[in-house]
Amino acid sequence: MVGSMERDRRTLMRKLWRFLAVLVAALLLAAALGTLVPRPLWPAAAEGEGVRHILVLKNPIHTDIAVPLDDGVRRRFAFLADAGLPIEAPEARYVVFGWGGRTFYLETPTWSQLKAMPVLKALTLDASVMHVDVAGAIHEPHPDVAGFDIDDRHFSALLDYIAASFQQGSNGPVAIEDAGYSTYDRFYEANGHFNALIGCNTWTAAGLRVAGLRTGWWNPLPASLWWSMGLYN
Length: 233
Known about the structure:
The protein is an alpha+beta fold. The chain has eight helices and ten strands. Helices cover 41% and strands 24% of the residues. The strands form three sheets. Strands 6-2-3-4-5-9 form a six-stranded antiparallel β-sheet. The chain has a two-stranded antiparallel ribbon with strand order 1-10. A hairpin with a 4-residue loop joins strand 2 and strand 3 (63-68). The longest helix is centred in the first third of the chain and has 35 residues, at 2-36. This is TIGR02117 family protein. InterPro entries: CHP02117. Pfam families: DUF2459 (PF09601).
């Protein structure tokens, strides 16, 4: 009886390991295809001159879109100034937008503060937030910075995409009280739910496509998004 139970346990463990191996292989294949297959499949016809220079910023797990500050952007996102962000400061050059998981974003200001629950939420399902940061000059070239010139029409469409990501309350976007890493950033409630398959990098990729650029079909990681941006733009 004991021998039979042990054989059953070993059989179950072998099946489990096979399933995990197949799952990992499927995810790796999907990630490779998501990088190599462009979206959209065919480049769009040439539009107006690229007069707006946007940036994509990355770290090992996350990407942001940096938009150059001008009077139009300041008016469009005036609620940021109302929340105390220094978008009117002379040294402010970019406003940086990122979409991500609420728990991980708010509870992991530094890698040394990484905890199990935010990681679990990020891998399964979490509410989302918008993180907004004000930056000065961002130097190029840099391995973690990619710059693109887009025309006014696509720039306006990108701003619409970013604005639509903010959850709206009775008085506009909903700021999260006392949430921020410094005096130069704020968190806001966002639309949509976050998980490991549809996360911050897929949000960035979708924004770039709205801006008239091409990405991979599915880019859950910064590295795959970076490679696809280099391949198709």
